[in-house]
Amino acid sequence: MKIPGSFILLSAVATAQTVIETSSFGHGAMVAPSRDGIPGWDLGGEGHSPQILSNKVILTPPYPGNTRGSAWSQTPLSHSEWSAEFQFRATGVERAGGNLQLWYAKDGKDKVGSASIYTVGQWDGFALVVDTHSGKGGSIRGFLNDGTTDFKSHRSVDSLAFGHCDYSYRNLGRPSVVRIKHTNAILEVTVDDKLCFSTDKITLPAGNTVGVTAATPENPDSFEIFKVVLETATPGIGKAPPIQQQNSNQQPIAVQQQGGAQQKQPLSNDPRSADAQFVDLGSRIQLINHATNNILRELGIQGSKAETRQTDLLQRLATKEQVAGLDARLQRLESTLLSIQRDLEGKDYRDRFNQLHETLRSSHLSLTESIKDNFLSVITASTPRMGFFIFLVIAFQVILAGSYIMYKRRRANMPKKFL
């Protein structure tokens, strides 16, 4: 049977999506051409430096904790209508935690930096927060600010969320896909192709900057970013050509090829192929090696500290010679005391003590008598005679009487004054 030469061409496209290169990464073969940085983006961290691998950016490592990481686009977004695709993964032990924020904020690098939604001050824009706030394994929430509210000092930041949904994002073993669609009519957020929340009461202005920040506590989650892609919708041109009539026994080749291609497509929308999975496995091994090196470095530091402490303790302890000398001295002292005890037990000193007591008593009596005699003789020799003492008393009284009489006479002969 002869196949007709005309084919059906299904090329009608209503709209075409254009990637905004200055605000995107991860949509190509590699996240960055080198590990030195992502073109058009500024990366920073506290407690560590974000690590760039072939297919992802590790904002916070699995070890140590209390770290922060950030990635900010250097160019503000000039489109008012856009859509964003954000792919991330969070892995950690059972009770680990942390939070991840996707920002669309004015002067984001300067106003937000590496802060989280709980530590940021006054900022202007939109933030999508991924954390375990709900206590049900995780949640995704939306926040808005016009630059007047200081989130860091606010008494209840959680109450400021305008939309949320529960989503268990930890330890899934695959990237989670979050899509945000913003037009003049709607702001919509979907997670793994399921609607999270939407509203028609919010319109975000153009000129804000896109950024991602992550923060972890002492027991951390490792947040990995695979893709941040922003697109803008531009109207397309053309309509679908008319479908030509053909024999019922014949099927268009283009339709058959298209159907075969659709059958060959995977059912899941996971973009990773076998090679991508191999690359991801290699990056995980590199991450484990990095964490292992950090642990070994910590163990080495702790070992050196333990050796230093042991050396200090050994220096403070006594040497074997000093201990031996002290033991010999104690033995000599013990032997001396034992000999004195044996001498005391072998002799009777009762008579000698009685003799000593009598000698002391007789010496005390003789000394007391001699002192008494000498004291009386001294007193008697130094005492004046009684007659002389009486004469002195009488003479003193006569002098006092004469002085008093003279005073009275002078008082009487003085001229009297009248007031």
UniProtKB/TrEMBL annotation:
<feature type="domain" description="L-type lectin-like">
    <location>
        <begin position="22"/>
        <end position="233"/>
    </location>
</feature>
<feature type="region of interest" description="Disordered">
    <location>
        <begin position="237"/>
        <end position="274"/>
    </location>
</feature>
<dbReference type="Pfam" id="PF03388">
    <property type="entry name" value="Lectin_leg-like"/>
</dbReference>
<feature type="signal peptide">
    <location>
        <begin position="1"/>
        <end position="18"/>
    </location>
</feature>
<feature type="transmembrane region" description="Helical">
    <location>
        <begin position="386"/>
        <end position="407"/>
    </location>
</feature>
<keyword id="KW-1133">Transmembrane helix</keyword>
<feature type="compositionally biased region" description="Low complexity">
    <location>
        <begin position="240"/>
        <end position="266"/>
    </location>
</feature>
<protein>
    <submittedName>
        <fullName>Concanavalin A-like lectin/glucanase domain-containing protein</fullName>
    </submittedName>
</protein>
<dbReference type="InterPro" id="IPR013320">
    <property type="entry name" value="ConA-like_dom_sf"/>
</dbReference>
<keyword id="KW-0812">Transmembrane</keyword>
<dbReference type="InterPro" id="IPR005052">
    <property type="entry name" value="Lectin_leg"/>
</dbReference>
<dbReference type="InterPro" id="IPR035661">
    <property type="entry name" value="EMP46/EMP47_N"/>
</dbReference>
<dbReference type="InterPro" id="IPR051136">
    <property type="entry name" value="Intracellular_Lectin-GPT"/>
</dbReference>
<keyword id="KW-0472">Membrane</keyword>
<keyword id="KW-0732">Signal</keyword>
